[in-house]
Specification:
Blueprint (H helix, E strand, L loop, with lengths): L13 H11 L3 E4 L1 H7 L15 E4 L6 H11 L3
Length: 78
Amino acid sequence: MKGATSVLLEKWDPQNALRVMEQEQPSMLTAVPTQIIKLVPEPGLRSAKVDGLRVVINGGAPLPAENAMGREDGCGCR
């Protein structure tokens, strides 16, 4: 990816992840299913200013369909 910046969190929690995403405005998020499952119901997801986020890459295990759909509805990314 040309011009990308990587942001690593020392400890992951959904509120902090949203705060960092709003601050850094990533175009891509790489996460394991557990992180996505915890992020989708986060109350601040729908109001978070993450306009640049276009793609969420899931790895490590299958992601349940309801969580994938919640991700798409919550932040508008694929």
